[in-house]
Specification:
With 448 residues, the chain is mainly β. It is 2% helix and 35% strand. The strands form 8 sheets. Strands 12, 13, 14, 15 and 16 form a 5-stranded antiparallel beta sheet that branches. The protein is globular, with a radius of gyration of 21 Å.
Length: 448
């Protein structure tokens, strides 16, 4: 979702990076185990952190109508104390259009939270919703629908959440709609913009920036990513030349009122390079993109379809050249996990972190031999062209520690890793918020 980019001088940043050290040991701590109503349950989206270290997320179930909640996890005031969970808002269906939402939230400049919903909205094609903090202390948070998709040229079924631009406009993707004559007559999806109202209480304005046609993208469920020039980058899970997904760049018009243009950066073949990119992308300072695929890689694993990959996409050496893809790591479905559903994050030393939904300890309580998922670290080689090294930071056991993380991890308080599991916890079925610590990695790098 929206990233807060901290500006530092080159000297200060160099000093910090030189002082950083690699991760030294790790342990998993459950910060909150979701329970029975009216608490939320089964978080599917990731977490976002504010400047005070508070974490925010959504659950798929729970709340007063069992439609999910927006929750906050507050760090302890003293070291070693317990984190505290607060239900900020219980979702109520079409009245606020916040049912069927399982993406990561976006945090606005005034503390408001934004989410996409998949099925709800006025016509059932999904919506973008806003949850606003109270004006007075101890007041109630309020939820509202700021846009409801029609299923036509504007798109249908938004997925992946939204990101901000500098003016406060929101950008996201839908997996269907657009040109309803394509992609089995359901449409191949869109990239949309929502412009905030000029005056408080006014209507948001939706603009369809791009309509996919299949070869350039089909079903875009991932979170968009900015570069410094104002271009957007994203993934399509089943689009591209081989229908195994692609990575695209969407560039704004050169003149106001013109059309946005799409460049297809890479088409996955479904083989060793990966199959079906998922989650979000992340930059490194050299302009390389990193992400994950849900399948592909080592095709001898996972019944011949591959267990997923972590990939790098490198820009061309000369203008107008082709981007090149490298599969940095292939999951095997054993102790290192399989079926990654979220993206990766990167620290200042170049290490990548993420989760897989299955894999890990084959004796986990929840799913038997398939494993309950892992948190992993992928370290770059010491010399250029060497092999990246995967380390399993935590293997979920399906009990109180959680099971089946369906989104990635984020950096938060103390630069530890924070995430959610869909299952596990106090009753092994409601899910958890977890921390993997200590991780003494370098600070997060910003956008390219």
């Amino acid at each position: 979702m929206m990233k807060v980019i901290l500006t530092r001088s080159a000297i200060a940043l160099s000093t910090i990076l030189l002082a950083c050290s690699a991760a030294v040991g790790q342990s998993e701590i459950v910060l909150h185990a979701f329970g029975a109503l009216p608490d939320g349950s089964n978080p599917r989206g990731g977490l976002i952190a504010d400047s005070a270290g508070r974490l925010y997320g959504l659950t798929y179930n729970g709340g007063h109508q069992n439609l999910g909640v927006v929750y906050e996890i507050v760090p302890p005031s003293t070291k070693g104390g317990a984190w505290t969970e607060y239900v900020l808002y219980s979702l109520a269906g079409l009245t606020d259009s916040l049912t069927d939402s399982y993406d990561t939230l976006a945090l606005g400049s005034h503390g408001e939270l934004y989410a996409t919903t998949f099925y709800s909205g006025t016509l059932g094609y999904g919506s973008v919703a806003q949850v606003v903090p109270p004006a007075k202390r101890n007041g109630k948070w309020t939820g509202s629908m700021i846009y409801s998709f029609t299923g036509g040229t504007d798109g249908a079924y938004p997925e992946g959440g939204v990101v901000f631009d500098k003016s406060g406009a929101l950008y996201g993707t839908t997996i269907q709609g657009g040109n309803r004559g394509l992609c089995d007559h359901s449409g191949c999806g869109t990239v949309f913009q929502l412009v905030p109202p000029v005056s408080s209480g006014g209507a948001w304005t939706e603009n369809t920036l791009y309509t996919f046609s299949g070869f350039d993208g089909n079903g875009s469920p991932g979170q968009l990513l900015w570069d410094r020039a104002g271009n957007l980058y994203g993934i399509s899970e089943v689009g591209g030349a081989y229908a195994h997904g692609n990575v695209f760049e969407l560039s704004p018009p050169a003149v106001q009122g013109g059309s946005w243009s799409l460049a297809d950066l890479y088409d996955f073949t479904g083989g060793a390079d990966g199959n079906g990119p998922v989650g979000s992308l992340v930059w490194d300072p050299a302009g390389n993109l990193y992400g994950m695929t849900v399948a592909g890689g080592d095709l001898s694993a996972c019944s011949g379809g591959g267990c997923g990959t972590v990939f790098q996409l490198s820009p061309p050496a000369t203008q107008g050249g082709s981007w090149s893809e490298t599969a940095l790591y292939s999951f095997t479905g054993q102790s290192n996990g399989y079926l990654p559903l979220g993206g990766v994050i990167r620290d200042g030393s170049g290490n990548l972190y993420g989760t897989t939904y299955f894999g890990g300890d084959p004796l986990c309580d929840e799913s038997g031999s398939t494993g309950c998922g892992v948190v992993f670290k992928l370290a770059p080689p010491a010399v250029s062209g060497g092999t990246w090294t995967e380390t399993t930071l935590h293997s979920f056991l399906g009990g109180t520690d959680g099971a089946d993380p369906s989104s990635g991890v984020t950096f938060g308080k103390g630069n530890a890793l924070y995430g959610t599991t869909f299952l596990g916890g106090s009753s092994a079925e409601y899910g958890t918020v977890f921390e993997v610590t200590p991780l003494k990695q370098c600070p997060i790098t910003g956008i390219m």
